[in-house]
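Task card 7
Instruction: Convert sequence to structure tokens.
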Amino acid sequence: MANDTPLRSYTAPCPGCGAPVTFLHAQSTHAICAYCQSTVVRDGEVLRRLGKMAELFDDHSPLQLQASGQWVDKGQAQAFTLIGRLQYRGSNGTWTEWEAMLADGSLATLGEDNGSYVFSRPGVLQQALPAAGTLRLGQRVELSGTVYSVASRDQTALIAAAGELPHLPPLGQAFEMVELRSAEGEVLSIDYGRQPPLVARGRAVLLEDLQLRGLRDAIAKEERARQFACPQCGAPVQVTLASSKTITCAQCHAVIDLTAGIGRELRHVLQDEPLRPLIALGSIGRLQGVDWQVVGFQHRLGRDPEDPDETFGWSEYLLYHAKRGFSFLVDAQDGWSMVAPTTGAPQLSGDGRTASYLGSRYELRERYAAETDYVAGEFYWPVQRGQKTQNRDFAKGRTLLSMEQTAGEITWSTGGQLDSATVAQAFKLDSRKDLFKRSDAAPLSVASGMSRTTIVLVVLLVLVVLLVARCDDCDPRRENCSQNSSRSSGASYGGFSTGGGHK
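Output:
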């Protein structure tokens, strides 16, 4: 195994305060003094002070500078150490990227992505890059023989940094960042803030697979410290997830924005009368062999673009597992499903009626506009009431594929349908299992001895009764139903509003 320690390093007094500043990597040109926050640039054996760096806000990540691990690429393992940390802000919130120094002297980036992580390395393309202004969301682009889809295009700015850095963009100065994704799960990011633009290739990774050492300890103590007074009512609000960017107050139900850190001004918005989730926040449920915790809940409204008067509602539970990351449990009129964000980008057909992903072809089930109208708990993206997306749902049997699009980003999620009894049992709510039943459940079994004709008549009678009842009493803003009685389905199969990209 390669040695974790670089062959040579350079230490000199900070020009601002005299504290030692160490450069571990020969390619690093900048460092942030840990004592006075001076931005220091190295020119040979001379250090110059460029100014003061904004202080990092504490996002309570388990990662920290000098943590080390193993990166496996094409069967070859290589040690790495985290030497730098950068915090960025875009239109969809803030996120962190860590500069990693590998044992062979090369550099990589460990960045946040949809509640998980992507490990990226600098890449070289065998052709000229398209200008940022020519790329549009959803466009298919072929680069070096690989077909990508433009997943996001955003104005990004550095807001804080720490440690040792090979490059440091001007603080607070916006630059164009474009992210492309392939159907094979590769992420290609292009930083147009540099000339020539910097290209990085990456893939999704679980922190547990990196065999990390030197992570932050005393997590319980730090989590207790993440308590603050609600800016609306003053009640104590407890943040428990390192990646949370939005949380709701349990007392007044205000939605609180955490994207600037707890120590700064907290923006919030009030909500109307709260909804009561069928599965309580904090509940633990075992699905797909993993114990998931319900950390967030949102209710959403859909609207058919061809019939604006038709609305329908559904619920999404945000599930969290320390090693698996995040998934969504979706409660819709036509059944339950469990999905997770994809790293890759499925390929749409020219007419948009089918989507291909990992060798499977999915048929379009429906398309609609979606809006979030109630949230509770914690979320790893800056969720807001009134957030709107354009959605498409695809299906292949019980396997599901969903696309959500905002003005600056496209996110995909994939998963499968679940039986209502499975969901009730997973969360130990068997005594309330009747409340979990949805319209996908078969009312009768062919094995009961009844003729097919009798079964069809009974089914039709049950449907008529249910449709009449729903037409009279159902409110899609508070129930997972359709306002139009002719509708038999309609729900997002997951995804989320503005939570993709690096965020």
